[in-house]
Design a protein that fits this description.
single chain; alpha+beta
Length: about 150
């Protein structure tokens, strides 16, 4: 599976903006394929890249308080979100140069692009329209997570 940079940008843009990209611009580190139930990243791991889901389903989970065992060996975790094509994984932790607060697990075969933090920051600085789109996506996710986390309050 391969996408041109323009196709990839259109996949992740919220609005139908036309953006002029240089054809020689390369910011994708590499394409990855994950099998069903494979861990994409783990809670507590240093975030150094975002993952752009091109195909497949991913679940974000968080260990329940008091459980520090591996997500693979222990099912003491709660589902935070389900993500599909067009979604970015690890964006908040990567932008804040922090560790992942959740684990991402492939629920099906997943095709994803990995974009290193430095490349993402440079790309966002050079493309304000995409920068605004990312800010909107983050804002929507924060509102969604507030509803999920505080639904019983």
């Amino acid at each position: 599976m391969s996408f041109s940079v323009n196709e990839l940008i259109r996949l992740f843009l919220d609005e139908k903006s036309i953006i002029d990209f240089r054809s020689d611009e390369v910011w994708i580190q590499h394409t990855l394929l994950y099998k069903k139930n494979e861990i994409i990243f783990s809670e507590g791991e240093k975030a150094d890249a975002v993952f752009l889901v091109c195909k497949g389903k991913v679940v974000l989970v968080k260990r329940k308080e008091g459980h520090s065992t591996s997500i693979q060996k222990n099912h003491s975790y709660g589902v935070i979100d389900h993500l599909t094509s067009g979604e970015m994984l690890g964006l908040p932790a990567t932008l804040s140069d922090n560790t992942h607060s959740t684990s991402a697990i492939a629920q099906s075969k997943v095709h994803a692009f990995k974009v290193k933090r430095e490349d993402l920051l440079l790309f966002l600085a050079n493309h304000p329209t995409f920068h605004i789109s990312v800010a909107r996506k983050l804002s929507r996710k924060i509102l969604h997570y507030e509803r999920v986390l505080f639904k019983d309050v």
